Amino acid sequence: GAITSLNTAVDTSAEAARCATFYPKALRWALEERFWSFAMMRKALLAVTSDSSAYQFAYVFPSDCVRPLSLIPAETPDDILVAGFTFPTPWPTTVMADWQRYTSAEVPQMFSHERKADGTDVVYTNLEDAHLRYIGHIRDVELFPEHFRDAVQMRLASYLAGATVKGIKGAQLAQSMWAAAKVAIGGAAELDGQNSRVRPKH
């Protein structure tokens, strides 16, 4: 039947319990798939003592990070991210003059994301005063574009089909919904790219 809430204290049905179990997985899958403009974040990282022999600096990894994109200096402007590098937008007529402003110190830097023995997530790098550009774990559905919501629903349906419909029929239904989710996520990404400029939230 129809569920009234993903909060199992409010809706105690088996359907609600299954949705509450699989929805976070479906949402994370969708967020990890693309560079979503509504989920693009930029944060100044909190420095901690580096215990690495390979990297001079260490920072606390943001707890809301779904997918790290690039580590950049504080002075790097908020331009569109393309394959890990920042480019002026729109591209200026004096290309070389502007490009020289993007020195090697301003482009994304190498980093290593590691989990320590105590479970702490840390970013190691040789960049001081680092900022991280990343896809954030957005939970407010009001921020989701309609086509993104459709993709999440399709992915959730693929999980639920396998859990609720038994045998070959359930497996086939799950595969069908999974294929629909992939089509939906592609369409959502195309619309997101057409309709918005990437300006990370700080």
List keywords for this structure.
four-stranded antiparallel sheet, three-stranded antiparallel sheet, 20% strand, alpha+beta, single chain, 9 strands, 202 residues, elongated
Give a short synopsis of this structure.
This protein is an alpha+beta fold. It contains four helices and nine strands.
- What's the number of extended β-strand segments? 9
Detail the poorly predicted runs.
80-105
Could you report the average pLDDT, rounded to the nearest whole number?
Answer: 82
Main β-sheet description = 4 strands, antiparallel
Strand arrangement, major sheet: 2-3-8-7
Using only C-alpha atoms, the radius of gyration works out to 20 Å
What is the fold's blueprint, element by element?
Elements: H1 14-33, E1 40-44, E2 47-48, E3 57-60, E4 65-73, E5 81-82, E6 85-86, H2 95-101, E7 111-115, E8 121-125, E9 130-136, H3 146-164, H4 167-195
Antiparallel strand pairs: 1-9, 2-3, 3-8, 4-9, 5-6, 7-8
